[in-house]
Amino acid sequence: MMMDKLSLFFIANQGRYEKGLRLPQIPPIKSGWVVDQASLSIKAKKQLAPSVEIVINRGFNEILNAYDRFFENPCDPEGAHQVRVRIRKFRAILAFFRPLFKAESYLRQQDTLRKMGQQFGEVRQLDVLLAGISEIEKEANFEISDFGKLKDHLQGRREAALDLLLTSLKTDAFALDLLDIWVWKLNDPWAAGVPDLQRSIKDYTDKHIENWLKKIRQSMKSLEVKDQRLVHRVRIKSKKLRYVIEQLASILDRKTRKSLDAFEKMQDDLGYYHDVFANRQLLEQLVAASPDCHLHHQAGIIIGWQMMAGNRKIRKFIK
């Protein structure tokens, strides 16, 4: 019965959504989570502005694709995750080309995209915590029933968060925000008198990737791992660069592409460390609101286990 309701919701919402997308003649959504890098069709010597348009179109279509796939099965944790990832990738590429855009309109698009991603935040955080508990069960050989009460409680919160998300999306605000971003892209977003616009995509990319790398290296040298906010900022910077390298791989040299492996490993470790603190905060809120001693005990085990694993991962960054 639940899936029947979801299916009916999807059909009704998709009808309004697709009708809206036809108005500005947005290209059709591609199937699958991944769009082939070769589909960018960018040559290194191509002028910057038309190249950036190609990259933006691809990023925009990936958001549409993920949004569409999310509604096929909203209960699938990967759905909410992919929408957030596609929005973050799009934000990263806009940030990389920020010097080219009119400042005020650029900031407006970033603020809109940030709020769009935040809608999926609670569902995603609960999915991360539930996945983390499953990993602990496997690694520690716990019986499934050991964390049963905690997982049931978190799953209930996840279902409630998903209901709120679907209710919000049913207003079509998300789709309308996407349309506004598309209109911004079409309506001459370029700043006046920017010399970089006359350069090639290759020249611009090489210069700005090197600048981003320098800033990340400087941040890593002074990284204070006990400062969670600082760790999170470094993680976000490196993740943005990773997304940019992924999306512009076809015009980058082998050394720059290979650096992606190092960024992935660093982000995995810093990301886990960040998730540990986010999970701890969520579980402490749960404990504070419940008199159930079993929930207290199970939450304590999860917090302790993840803090121990997080400390192991972060030691390599301590000088």
Q: How does the SSE layout of this entry go?
A:
Layout: H1 2-22, H2 48-72, H3 77-96, H4 103-118, H5 121-140, H6 148-169, H7 173-186, H8 201-221, H9 228-247, H10 254-289, H11 293-314
Helix pairs in contact: 2-3, 3-4, 3-5, 3-9, 4-7, 5-6, 8-9, 9-10, 10-11
Principal-axes geometry comes out as globular
Uncertain runs = 1-12, 19-39
- Rounded to the nearest angstrom, the distance between the terminal CA atoms is 56 Å
Number of helices: 11
DSSP summary, beta strand count: 0
Q: What fraction strand?
A: under 5%
Q: Rounded to an integer, what's the Rg over CA atoms?
A: 22 Å
pLDDT averaged residue by residue: 82
Q: Give the SSE string.
A: HHHHHHHHHHH
Largest sheet: none
Helix content: over 70%
How would you characterize this protein structure?
By secondary structure, the chain is mainly alpha-helical. It contains eleven helices and no strands. It has helices spanning 2-22, 48-72, 77-96, 103-118, 121-140, 148-169, 173-186, 201-221, 228-247, 254-289, 293-314. The chain is globular, with a radius of gyration of 22 Å. The model is unreliable at 1-12 and 19-39 (pLDDT under 50).
Keywords:
single chain, 319 residues, mainly alpha, 11 helices, 0% strand, globular, disordered N terminus
In short:
The chain is mainly α and 319 residues long. The chain has helices spanning 2-22, 48-72, 77-96, 103-118, 121-140, 148-169, 173-186, 201-221, 228-247, 254-289, 293-314.
